[in-house]
Design goal:
CATH superfamily of the largest domain: Spore Coat Polysaccharide Biosynthesis Protein SpsA, Chain A
InterPro entries: Chond_GalNAc, CS_glycosyltransferase, Glyco_trans_31, Nucleotide-diphossugar_trans
Number of domains: 3
Distance between the termini: 98 Å
Enzyme class: transferase
Helix content: 25-40%
CATH topology of the largest domain: Spore Coat Polysaccharide Biosynthesis Protein SpsA, Chain A
Strand content: 15-25%
Subcellular location: Golgi apparatus, Golgi stack membrane
Pfam families: CHGN, Galactosyl_T
Largest sheet: 6 strands, mixed
Structural class: alpha/beta
Strand order of the largest sheet: 3-2-1-4-9-6
Shape: elongated
Protein name: Hexosyltransferase
Amino acid sequence: MCFFKQNIPVYDDVNDAFRTVKLDRTKDSHNSGENLVFVGVMTANMYLNTRAKAVYETWGKNLPGKIAFFTSETSIAPANLPVIPLPGVDDSYPPQKKSFMMLKYIADHYAQHFEYFMRADDDVYVRTDRLEKFLRSVNSTNPHFIGQAGKGNQDEFGHLALKDDENFCMGGPGIIMSRATLLKVAPHVRDCLKNLRSTHEDVEVGRCVRKYAEVPCTWSYEMQSILYHNGSGTEAFTGPLKQREVHRAITLHPIKNHTHLYRLHTYLQGLEIRTNEAKLVHLIRELVKTSEETRLSTPRLNDPVNGIFLDHLGMESTLQKWNPALESEVLTWDFVSRAVFHLSDANPRHRPTSGVNEGLEDVTRDVMEIINRVSKERGRVIDFKEVLYGYMRWNPTFALEYILDMLLLYRKYRGKKMTVSVRRHAYIQIPFGPLRIHEYESISDEEDPDSTLGIQNIVQVVVKNSLKDFENLQYQVPQRDISEKRNPKKINFILPLAGRFASFQRFMDDFRRICLEGEENVQLFVISFRPSSTEEDTSENVEALISSLQLDYPHITMSVIQTNISFTRAMALELGARQCADSDLMLFIDVDMTFTSAALDRIRLHTVKNRQVYYPVVFSEFNMQDLGESRPSSYDHTLIDEDVGYWRAFGFGIVSIYKCDLQLAGGLDTSILGWGREDVDLFEKVLKSGIKIFRAADPGLIHIFHTVDCDKNLEPSQYDMCQGTLYSTYGAVQTLTKTILANPDMLRDS
């Protein structure tokens, strides 16, 4: 290896050094609590306006000490940023000279004013509150070299001139030295630069510290989580931040994109607010408890003038905060296991939502943190394994409550060592924080509209500026252009049919009124199958009705495709799709559906060729006859009410899709015979194809009730689907409950 002589500059401008970091020369670690640590951040000229600025505007201003950014001699320092250009240093990589010169500068100018000194990169985030707590727990008079110990990666192992018992502190997550260590190393910077054994500056700093301060980097497994390095590279900390590593660490590295540094800072500020609100709750509870024990009146903490209310936070933590007087006031618990059972949902059993899972993760993480706070004193660590089951409920007045059965791993490392699995019940409350009320004056209706014109203009500008970034989003809300509004896209109705002529007549009445008389741009293809043996063959009547309408409306294509096979919905839809061109918009619909013109508009809007398929959630009517009620012939089927029907959230039979997108998804599985399952199969194919699915409740699509007969010859999965649909039409839960309470004999064995 070739070595060359380094020119070591001498620094004399002491006043400038203090002025740059705004340090009072009379202050030191003995007479000021703000002189705990000095942080030197290594950066380059190209990062001064991005990474360096982000560091200074986030965690850099909250240090219990001072911070400075060390860069090359020719760097141009932005205003209000404490930058120290190092003479004779450039921004070349690896920054070995920059690193040693920074340590020399810090020792020459700031060594007597701080207890600790930290070398940091410009892509690290430091949780300053935790750093202060950590450093104040360590005796600063001893020589310390604190960091995440390393010996090189797999490719470097054995090539860094390190002995088996030697290590170095990884530079990325940060390196901390006590004053004693820095003062022992600084005089020997010239020798360390002359004897470089590798291209890694953190390895060489570690070698220099070990040689002259005679102290190694901290051999501690915990340092991997305290000074945390994420090995994902540029993807680190770009995803969800609600992770155990983020919550536990003092430093987080690397954050390559400086905008993510602001994002991380905002998230951690939110955690700090949450922590402070939890402390506030505990303090107010202690205040109330002390007042009761001393028989003194509890001070009023509410501040109605400023809209802040705190008195409710003093309520004792108990599962019996409130006793309901009526049955309707009882707050029910949701059961949580692999599925969630929720009493008030239309579908009581469903998968845990992302909100439920996230809430459980938050709760278990906080509980484990509380449990392990005394782990060192008790010589044990408890690890979380899983939640076996639990209950949760939301009390909107007081708190979110959990009862959890948790599987834990108990590790005892003091005395008789052991590792054993244990189960524990946890009763948890997450109280709501302070109540804040903001009032805004409303503009009177009688006020002169001209007097609000200026406000409206300001609001318009603010809204436009707020929305201008939406154009950069990958997904855009589909909108129709002017030509499409004048000439709406043609909708090709594809209607499978087998018998049921009365229902077909009703459907065609709606089709005539809405589409034909309303001059909608549509086509209709009826795929007629051979009816079941119990039904009359009305195929000729179907053709006659269509022919009659075709004479009245010759400009609208309406045709019947006859098939002499038993009803198969998948085959019917496939035959209908064959009548359309690749660029045609198709609507798969059933004979029991009624629709509105507004529904057709939404079908055109939400179905986008090559991009999006529309799966509307239709409203399905209940069977009123079994409950002793009936609908009159003039009944308005567009009436939507929870007593007359329900949203069929698990139905996928009604869909609007372009033919080219149907082909891209793989088409329909015509091997599925009879009723059901073909819709779910197509839905899954569309999901896998990558085409977006737009799904929403559509009040203009109503499924009219009809009796359901489930053929026992169907495949088990199809038969179960049919039975599920049959049971769903019995009636609303409250209606069924009233019926059973009024007729208790219904529950008795016959």
